[in-house]
TrEMBL record, chain A:
Coiled coil: none annotated. This is Branched-chain amino acid ABC transporter permease. The lineage of its organism: Bacteria, Pseudomonadati, Pseudomonadota, Alphaproteobacteria, Rhodobacterales. It is a multi-pass membrane protein. It is found in: Cell membrane. Keywords: Amino-acid transport, Cell membrane, Membrane, Transmembrane, Transmembrane helix, Transport. Belongs to the binding-protein-dependent transport system permease family. LivHM subfamily. InterPro entries: ABC_transp_permease, BCAA_transport_permease. The chain crosses the membrane at residues 6-27, 39-56, 76-98, 110-130, 157-176, 204-222, 242-263, 275-294. It holds the Pfam family BPD_transp_2.
Amino acid sequence: MDAALIVYALNLSAIYALMAIGISLLWSSIGMLNMAHGATFAVAGYGTLVLGNALLPLVEAVFDGWAILPLLKMTVLLLSGVTVGALFGGLIYLLGFLPIHDKANFPVRGMIVTLAINLATVQALLWWFGPRQQALPNVFGFGRLNLFGIPLRYDQAMTIGATVVLLGVVLAWLRLSRKGLEIRAMMQNAEGAALSGISVRRTALPVVAVTGAMAGAAAVLLSQTVYVSPGAGAMPLIKGMIIALLGGLGSVPGAAIAALLVGTLEAVTGAIPFLGQRMVLVVQFGFIITVLIIRPRGIGGLLSETRK
Amino acid sequence: MTLLKITDLSAGYGPLRVLHEINLTVERGERLAIVGLNGHGKTTLFRAITHLVGWQRGSILFDGVEIGGQRSLGEGRKTPGIVRLGVAMTPQGDAIFPGLTVRQHLDCGAWSKQAWRERAKRREAIFDLFPPLRKLENTTVGTLSGGERRMVSVGRALMTEARLYLIDEPSLGLAPVISQRVIAALREIDVKDGAIIIAEQNVTLLDGQVDRMIGMHAGRLRGDVGHVELG
């Protein structure tokens, strides 16, 4: 395995981790399997496109000639993606959570409603922006930097770096803040949380917004290499979901490890000559099914030493 | 002064009706025990007061506020609101958070602004009540024994002062020595102008610990036994 392959694997893992941890958190805290996570991804991509086209010339005019200009531009793009993602998360909360969360069979209803939101959003994007793929302003060009002899494309470095920072912030928020404590309590025992005065309705909004923001960040980071299109969210949604499953729905470290595993597997499978890119999904799903047959609780089940 | 007045409360799960027109009045400062066999509705009564059953009807007046009413959906939806009115409940099975530490559990129980501000002091008070918890402060609750979990669960309910404490089966699944310790700790709770209701199967454990005992059989309250001196 050469260095470039490792970098590619880390790049993929970073995007997958952002999606999977969001899906995993949503499922375990408010019991919603968010099928609209892909829509959040696509909407955030287009939102960044619109906002970026409006804001980037401004940034360029103000900070013209500064050495950190590309970094500033990237920050602007990331912030717009995160904001649009969080706002769309709020919309999902209003449409797909608030009206039905206390009805019977919420997990199934929630899945159907969010799937509907997903389909409607993709169609709306098709109608408004057209089917043509569009490129996000490429901030870094195609330059490379050399890190300890490893050739690293700027956008890859940015993706890996930004993901580590973002996940660090989210994990610290979950671990250290009072809201985070409430969310973790709700994840582990909804009834115990209710009896501690923790309201699902109040706690769900920040969770949906934060996971939406993570999907938005993933969209911006991925669109440095892939185009923005209305259906762009489908693959990240599917991969995020299977990785969340592999990680043992609800375990954040489990999802992170699963993302690393699946990202590496994808990079390696693509590099093996007789398998190649077209066999990536087959190998991935085969791997995940095998793991789930042997360890039904996924990787999270291996990590936790507590009994239920 | 009446703290809790339950009138014609029926409740159950799906087609199954467990409680049949219960009437119960609890005065301020009272320590009450509801005794009865397994499966006769003690837990369901507590869960109906906190809106955790599938459906219910009938009036529950808590300190003059109606928290009952008729509903067939949305179990748990109003529970945080009822808790915030001042009803603290230790549910059967403890409802602990397996991955959180003892300290985090107690912090979860401190939902009011004031309790959160003085949570360190209140944790100390809980540790004084349950000394074994002190050295377990940073242990994950999922790795604790049944007795320790019960202490954590009761401690969580005590972190914010409530007007009504509902303690469901404090002795369930515990060794006799430990359940005596838990009951003794419940005796220590200062109910002030509130009240405490304990649901229990083991009548001898409650000997001399409560002011009033009410029997429960087949979803109905049977007989107000009053203060009991046993053997």
